[in-house]
Specification:
The chain contains no helices and 28 strands. The chain is mostly beta strands. The two termini are about 15 Å apart. Helices cover about 0% and strands about 50% of the residues. Pfam families: WD40_CDC20-Fz.
Length: about 300
C-alpha cells in the first residue's frame, strides 16, 4: 500500500492494484498480473509524478503511468519475488527481493540497474530512503538492519532485532532519525541515529511490528501489529518519550500496512482481513508538538472501506 502526493492511495490485492482517490471517493483498477501463479507483492509512488512502481511474485518490476492506466516499462533483473520498493528524492528506485539482493534502478535509462547491494543473506523485506535521498535503510529476514550510502558495502549493519526487520520509516522532522520494527519473535520498536548507527531507544510492544509511520504534523510514531498480545491493532506513540498514546482497534487480522495522507491529517491501514480503514487522528497544526493531545477517544473519527 502507498499513498501518493497526488492524493491517490494504491492498494495491491491479488493480481490487481486498486487506486482510490480520497478527493472524489472513486476507485479504479489496474491489472498488473495475468499468470495464474503471479500476484502483486509491492507498490510505491514516484515522488511528484503520477507514476507507480509495482513489484510481482514472479520477479517483474513494472512502471505504470496512472493518468493513462498504461504500463510504461517492465524490468526483469531479480530472480525471485519483489517484496519491497522505495523511491529516493532523486528518483532512484530501490527494489528488494527474495533473492536477498537490493537493486538500484534508474527507470529513465536503457541499462536501468545502476547498483547492486548484496549484503543480506535472506529476503529483503523492508526498504526506506532518508528524506534527503542520501541514505537507504534496508531490513531483511536475516534480522539485519543496514544503512547504505555506497553501492558496495553498507555503512553500518546491526542485528539489534531478534526477528525479521520489515517495518522501516524515517522521521520527517529529524533527518537522521530512523525507526525500525521487529517480527513476531522480537516485537520491538527501535530508534536509531543514521549518523553513526547508534541505537537511541528500544520499546517492547509485545507483538509483531508489521509497519511503522511517522506523523508529519505531531511528534508521534504509528505502529501496526500482528501476532501476540497487541495483535491486530494500530498504536500511536509519543516521541521522544515513546509513551503509548492509544490503540486503534477494528481489524480482525494482522495489520500489514500503514500510510499517512499527503496533508498529514489522516492515516490508512490495510489488514490481512482484506479491509482498508481510514483514521482521522492527527491535528492540522504543528503547534500540537508543544502540547500533544493525550489521545482521548473523541479525537478519532473512524470510517472504513472494504476491498475484497
Amino acid at each position: 500500500m502507498a499513498w501518493g502526493t497526488n492524493g491517490i492511495l494504491a492498494i495491491a490485492l491479488g493480481q490487481v492494484v486498486f487506486l482510490y482517490c480520497t478527493a472524489t471517493n472513486k476507485t479504479q483498477e489496474i491489472r498488473a498480473c495475468f499468470e495464474p501463479n503471479n500476484y502483486v507483492t509491492s507498490v510505491a509512488w514516484r515522488s511528484g509524478a503520477n507514476q507507480l512502481a509495482v513489484g510481482t511474485f514472479q520477479a517483474e518490476l513494472q512502471l505504470w503511468d496512472i493518468d493513462r492506466c498504461a504500463k510504461l516499462r517492465s524490468l526483469r533483473s531479480h530472480r525471485a519475488r519483489i517484496g519491497s520498493l522505495a523511491w529516493s528524492s532523486s528518483n532512484t528506485l530501490a527494489s528488494g527481493s527474495l533473492d536477498a539482493k537490493i537493486l538500484l534502478n534508474d527507470v529513465r535509462a536503457s541499462r536501468y540497474v545502476v547498483g547492486v547491494l548484496a549484503h543480506h543473506t535472506e529476503e529483503v523485506c523492508g526498504l526506506a530512503w532518508s528524506p534527503d535521498g542520501n541514505t537507504l535503510a534496508s531490513g531483511s529476514n536475516d534480522n539485519q538492519l543496514c544503512l547504505w550510502n555506497s553501492v558496495t558495502m553498507p555503512r553500518c549493519s546491526n542485528r539489534g532485532h531478534g526477528a525479521a526487520v520489515r517495518a522501516l520509516t524515517w522521521s520527517p522532522w529529524e533527518r537522521h532519525l530512523l525507526a525500525s520494527g521487529g517480527g513476531a519473535a522480537d516485537g520491538a520498536i527501535k530508534l536509531w541515529s543514521s549518523l553513526n548507527g547508534q541505537l537511541l531507544r528500544s520499546v517492547a510492544t509485545g507483538s509483531q511490528v508489521c509497519a511503522l509511520a511517522w506523523s508529519n504534523t505531531t511528534r508521534e510514531l504509528v505502529s501496526a501489529h500482528g501476532h501476540h498480545s497487541a495483535a491486530n491493532t494500530v498504536t500511536l506513540w509519543e516521541y521522544p518519550s515513546m509513551t503509548r498514546v492509544c490503540d486503534l482497534t477494528g481489524h480482525t487480522a494482522r495489520v500489514l500496512h500503514l500510510a499517512i495522507s499527503p496533508n498529514g491529517m489522516s492515516m490508512a491501514s490495510a489488514g490481512a482481513d482484506e479491509t482498508l480503514r481510514f483514521w482521522d487522528v492527527f491535528p492540522s497544526s504543528r503547534s500540537s508538538w508543544m502540547s500533544p493531545n493525550p489521545g482521548k477517544s473523541g479525537r478519532f473519527d473512524l470510517h472504513s472501506a472494504v476491498i475484497r
